[in-house]
Design brief:
- The structure is a single chain.
- Strands 1, 2, 3, 4, 5, 6, 7, 8 and 9 form a nine-stranded antiparallel sheet that branches.
- This protein starts with a helix and ends with a strand.
- It is built from two helices and nine strands, in the order H-E-H-E-E-E-E-E-E-E-E.
- 15% of the residues lie in helices and 37% in strands.
- The chain is an alpha+beta fold.
């Protein structure tokens, strides 16, 4: 029993540090839900369908204690369809950061499989770009390339 309690406590310590993916639009800020809806032609109104893993990645990029959101439009698709937000440069990716007036779009780029890394402080975003991958980190008012 003690071993189980220790494992549960260890999981509690580790899980909050990781960026997590959201599988539904429930509880998202309105501006983020609207951006999701933009990528889903099958859901112009009403409830949004379940999201693919990694479609919405959540982390606190700007360190204000509020969740920020990365949307990967390569994974925001209706069942049986392909994304209209992908092309030769990859797929659209948008990042919404919290602020005093709510969430705002601060990054709109194209990439392949963006990944939020919360092992760094503040969390970073790894982007696959040709000819060189990039890592972005929040710097007071915007994201900057750190490598």
């Amino acid at each position: 029993m003690r071993r189980l309690a220790r494992l549960a406590f260890a999981a509690f310590l580790v899980l909050p540090a990781a960026a997590y993916a959201q599988s539904s639009a429930e509880g998202l800020p309105p501006v983020v839900t609207a951006a999701l809806r933009e990528g889903l032609t099958c859901a112009p109104r009403g409830p949004l369908p379940p999201l693919e893993p990694g479609a919405v990645q959540i982390a606190d990029f700007n360190g204000d204690g509020q969740p920020d959101y990365l949307l990967d439009y390569g994974k925001i698709v209706c069942k049986g369809e392909i994304s209209g937000f992908c092309g030769s440069a990859g797929c659209a990716m948008r990042v919404f950061v919290s602020g005093p007036k709510g969430h705002a779009l601060v990054l709109d780029d194209y990439t392949v499989d963006p990944v939020v890394d919360t092992n760094t402080k503040p969390p970073t975003i790894r982007l696959k770009h040709y000819p060189k991958d990039r890592v972005l980190r929040w710097s007071k008012t915007r994201f900057r390339v750190v490598r």
